[in-house]
Every structure is written in structure tokens, then in C-alpha cells.
Task: inverse folding
């Protein structure tokens, strides 16, 4: 039995199948961790959703920003982007089952020495606090009033965490940190303007995993979201978005021994910024 963590798919179904063949994945024995952004901008989001949902307990998925964008679009919230490729999902006969399954995925997953999140954690959050905050959002998404939450979820304010935050502001900060964040300022507030690789960040902006005054974390954080960062393995961090959508590669790490598997991908989107 092996557990593999896999980077952002964004609708890249054929590369996923090739990677699973390459690692000799056995769905009766092995498990897959997906770091979020199963869908959007690639050509086969519907096929990805159907496949991953069909894996049942063999798959662990955390939500990414594109997954949440799909859920919002399905309920008439948020703005469609011209780069979106969500139409086949929204028109599929099984869309309600797929969207209900997706909406009930966690934001944060902790198991053994690893913790998985799509984007990152704010400097002040340890793993235990992040897990509790993630559950707050998961409860809102799975609850009877989830449509109200979706109507208030998106936005970039507040940009900083305060323990006394409440209501939609509190949940929005958690969503933004765990699904959108790349950089933080020294005071721990999120910097949504800065993209690109860490080496080109302006002074005063830090990669979230290198921000000052970080809480102690004994887990290795497994994440995606940041294709300009690329694959990165360092103490306490496994970053797996190696830019499959952009013509980079799709990467898996076998968590049992941290062996890396990677295959090149065809380019589906011409990079015009860093996503």
C-alpha cells in the first residue's frame, strides 16, 4: 500500500491517467492525495471529476480556488472568466451529484506526519488551529445555508487574521489563506497582488512558508496552487504544482518514502501571468 500526493490537475485528465500508469497505481491497494484545483482551464474537467469521485475512499481531495469557483458558478455567484472551461461540468446530466460531492471536500487534511492544503497557511496558524478553522468552512459549505456562504465568500478583505473575526469575514480569511494565498507581508497579512516566483517578489513580501514569526509546525505541509514556485521539497514543505496546465509537468510524491514521479504535459494554456 502506498500513498501518492499529486499536484494541480485543472482538467488535465489524460496526463493524470498517464501518471497513474507510470506509478503503477492500484486503486484496491494505494491511495491518492489531490492538492486541489481538480478543474478549470484544462480540457477535461468533467472527466477528472468523474474519475476522482469514482475512486471513493482511495482519493483524498482538498478544495482549491478553481474548485470553489466552479461551485460558486453553479449557484450563480462570482464572475465567469473567459479562460474558464467549466461548461461541460455545468451542463452534465450528473452535475448535481458531482457538485454536491465536490462541495463536501475538506479545505485541510491531516494524517500522520503530513498536512495537505491547496495554497498555504497564515504564519500565525499551527496545524491544530488550521484544522479547526478548516472545519468551520467545511461546516458552512456542507450546511443547509451554504448558498448564503457562497454569496459572501469571495473577496480579498480582510487581508489579515484576527482571532476575534466573526461571520463571513472570518470564513473568508480562512478560504483565502488556504486556497488563494502565495505571499504574506511581515505583519502576517496576505499579499494578493504579488505573483510569480518568490525570487521576484518585491521587498516586504514573503512566500507564505518563509514569512517571519511563523508558528511551529511539526508536520510537512503538502500544497499546490503556485505553478511559478514549481515543485519544491524542503524541510516542512512539499509543493507540487509543477505547471501541468501550462506545458510543465504533472508531479506525484510517494509520501511513504518521498520518491518523486513526474511526467511532461502538453500545453493547454499559454502563460499570460502566474496562476
Result:
Amino acid at each position: 500500500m502506498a500513498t501518492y500526493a499529486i499536484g494541480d490537475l485543472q482538467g488535465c485528465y489524460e496526463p493524470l491517467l498517464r501518471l497513474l500508469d507510470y506509478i503503477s497505481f492500484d486503486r484496491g491497494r494505494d491511495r491518492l492525495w489531490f492538492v486541489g484545483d481538480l478543474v478549470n482551464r484544462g480540457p477535461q474537467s468533467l472527466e477528472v471529476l468523474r474519475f476522482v469521485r469514482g475512486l471513493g475512499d482511495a482519493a483524498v481531495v482538498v478544495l482549491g480556488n478553481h474548485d470553489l469557483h466552479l461551485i460558486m458558478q453553479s449557484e450563480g455567484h462570482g464572475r465567469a472568466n473567459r479562460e474558464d472551461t467549466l461548461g461541460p461540468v455545468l451542463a452534465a446530466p450528473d452535475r448535481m451529484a458531482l457538485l454536491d460531492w465536490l462541495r463536501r471536500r475538506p479545505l485541510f487534511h491531516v494524517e500522520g506526519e503530513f498536512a495537505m492544503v491547496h495554497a498555504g497557511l497564515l504564519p500565525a496558524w499551527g496545524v491544530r488551529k488550521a484544522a479547526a478553522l478548516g472545519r468551520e468552512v467545511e461546516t458552512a459549505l456542507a450546511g443547509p445555508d451554504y448558498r448564503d456562504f457562497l454569496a459572501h465568500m469571495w473577496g480579498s478583505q480582510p487581508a489579515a487574521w484576527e482571532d476575534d473575526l466573526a461571520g463571513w469575514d472570518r470564513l473568508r480569511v480562512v478560504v483565502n489563506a488556504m486556497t488563494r494565498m502565495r505571499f504574506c507581508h511581515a505583519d502576517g497579512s496576505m499579499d494578493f497582488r504579488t505573483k510569480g516566483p518568490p525570487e521576484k517578489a518585491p521587498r516586504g513580501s514573503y512566500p507564505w512558508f518563509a514569512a517571519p514569526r511563523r508558528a511551529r509546525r511539526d508536520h510537512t505541509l503538502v500544497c499546490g496552487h503556485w505553478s511559478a514556485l514549481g515543485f519544491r521539497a524542503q524541510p516542512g514543505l512539499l509543493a507540487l504544482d509543477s505547471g501541468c496546465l501550462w506545458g510543465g509537468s504533472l508531479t506525484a510524491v510517494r509520501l511513504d518514502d518521498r520518491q518523486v514521479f513526474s511526467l511532461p504535459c502538453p500545453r493547454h494554456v499559454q502563460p499570460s501571468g502566474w496562476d
